[in-house]
Design a protein that fits this description.
Blueprint: E1 2-7, H1 14-24, E2 41-45, H2 50-58, E3 63-64, E4 67-72, H3 87-95, E5 99-105, H4 121-152, H5 156-173, H6 185-190, E6 201-207, H7 219-231, E7 234-238, H8 240-246, H9 251-261, H10 267-278, E8 281-287, E9 292-298, H11 303-310, H12 312-316, E10 318-324, H13 326-332, H14 335-340, E11 345-347, E12 358-363
Parallel strand pairs: 1-4, 1-5, 3-9, 5-6, 6-7
Antiparallel strand pairs: 2-4, 8-9, 10-11, 10-12
Helix pairs in contact: 1-8, 4-5
Amino acid sequence: MLKVGIVGLPNVGKSTLFNALSNNYIAEAANYPFCTIEPNTAIVNVPDERLFVLQKFVSTNVVVHAAIEFVDIAGLVKGAAQGEGLGNKFLSNIRETDLIVHVTRCFEDPNVIHVSGRIDPLDDIETINTELILADLEQVQKSRERNAKKARGNDKEAILIDSVLAKIQPLLEAGEPASGADLSEEERLAIKSYGLITLKKVIYAANIAEQDMAEGTNNFVKAIEKYAQQEGAGVVVVSAAAEAQLVGMSEAEKKEFLAELGVKDTGLNRLIRSAYEQLGLRTYFTAGEKEVRAWTIHAGDKAPRAAGVIHTDFEKGFIKAETIAYNDFVSCGSRPKAREIGKARQEGKEYVVQDGDVIEFKFNN
């Protein structure tokens, strides 16, 4: 399951956003229910209307969304890498995530005090990023020290790891993120277990005032977008205050409220979709009388690997995948009809699964 860490300075709207997420995405029927695993962790659905369209055609009461685990990582302040504000504890939580959502304050409000006394999202970003870089630098230095003896003893794995960390260390020492290192897929895999924070993909969640939602931007947001473009990060504009008001509303009430604000979709929906895009994730479906379910894979995954997401036995014993594109399934209205008119394809081991494919796997037990 995708794990996303929400970070930011105090009073930027981070916890408000997290609370809106955890309360606004309670699962339907047999979906993953919102579940507080720890006081700051929640599992939420990935919104996908295609599931409910498919549900109508296969006549099932069970719809299972893909799910994301969100972690509200509190307490990051200047000096976190040296333990300020329980920084070491929270930084270790970030290492366990796949993606970082960095909430930045893009609104003026004299009633909400900013820790540095002024609203400057780029300065806020710099403060957080500096702490993450310092934390990674300490991790790299300690790891290289631990690996040194094995590397001297010609341990191939230790030599590879040290060579990768040697590429990253100068960047961190220069105040640059590890993501700037030119690493091969093999090198990335070699150090994956180290959980280097600045190697992770980032989305900046620009938290604007409710009255700015119709426009969808302001000067603070524009500055973040320019910064993120240079960094290769994503940007999603949200209003944590507005999202919090959506909690508990019916779908009809949500649409009416959003229309009054001049927007069509929630910032949280856009945030979740952006997380998928940043990590190169795709969704395929299984659909039958038992259930309609969304499964998450990576772009480029072939049919056997996609089958393995359901169960490892499916991947090991893979024979073929009867595949129907989502639009074809909807236009045909059923798998038998799709077969009848030639829209159901028999795909083998080399087939690259596409987003929205509706698949039935055949495999050896």
